[in-house]
Known about the structure:
Elements: E1 3-12, E2 15-25, E3 30-35, H1 41-48, E4 56-61, H2 73-78, E5 79-82, H3 95-105, H4 110-123, H5 128-133, H6 141-153, E6 159-163, H7 171-186, E7 190-194, H8 198-204, E8 207-212, E9 215-220, H9 222-225, H10 229-235, H11 241-251, H12 266-274
Parallel strand pairs: 3-7, 3-8, 5-6, 6-7
Antiparallel strand pairs: 1-2, 1-4, 8-9
Helix pairs in contact: 3-4, 3-6, 4-6, 11-12
Bound molecules: adenosine-5'-triphosphate.
Family: Belongs to the ABC transporter superfamily.
Domain ABC transporter: 3-238
Keywords: ATP-binding, Nucleotide-binding, Transport
Amino acid sequence: MPLTCRNLSLSYGARRVLAGVDLDVAPGRVLGVAGASGSGKTSLLRCLAGLERGYDGSVAVDSLGERASARGREWHARVGLVGQGPERQLFARTVFDDVAFGPNNLGLPDDEVLGRVTRALGAVGLDLDWSLERSPLECSGGEQRAVAIAGVLALQTPYLLLDEPTAGLDAARVEELVRLVRSLAEKGVGVALVSHDMEVLARASDEVAVLADGQVAYEGVPYQVFRQEGVLRRAGLEAPGLLRVAYALERAGRACGLARVPYDSLAGAILDAVVPGERPTGGARPAGEGA
Ligand SMILES: Nc1ncnc2c1ncn2[C@@H]1O[C@H](COP(=O)(O)OP(=O)(O)OP(=O)(O)O)[C@@H](O)[C@H]1O
């Protein structure tokens, strides 16, 4: 059963931030969440994470039903949240201790903690031996982000909420993050991914929900969402460049097979559409390699 919200509304004082939102975060799926600054993305994740109490409507996960988020511990065992700028919350003496904090807090035996920390560090590309020596304060910003994400991964929650996890990261770490999100989904984790980077959403998401004026203005598979020009305008968003090229080609009668081509293969599909038969479908040949 998914993590769901139904008719979810939330106000801060007189300001209504969410106004009747229905969304599902399903096991093994990645729900991307897009929207302008202040459209309520973080507030939505906080409701799903069981951190907001004053909402109307319902939020449920597995067998924990309406208002169950008030039960705290049970909810947090199911839903992990990596908030914005999570590296600000690193505090332990070593990276290892920081990542181990959550599992230790669950009262798990030492060998289970070690296993979880090892796997979580590996998932974000960090080394176990390094983690035993290094203070989080001595890490680069990108490493700190990875440590903070590992700390939540080590909780092994079946649902994971990520709020702007790629903000400020270099291209290689963005790439790692997209791969991590996809591999978590392949292992059955249900992920909600908030991002201002439409390319990250197009690559990582199974579906994208666009928030505008506190409501879901549109929800669908990425290539459909990003062709909704009116919705994007209303939400202050712009489709990723490659998709805009693909849409333009389709309008000109040169289909790129958007319904079946994953975003990462789109450059090859566009070249196929422009110069038919010149390239293997989905494959981009390294520069300089002969035909
Ligand atoms: N604790 C709070 N008290 C009062 N207002 C709040 C609080 N938290 C958020 N808000 C307001 O609610 C609105 C939505 O904020 P939220 O952080 O959910 O938006 P967002 O879509 O995540 O924005 P961004 O993309 O800039 O992170 C904003 O206008 C914000 O100022």
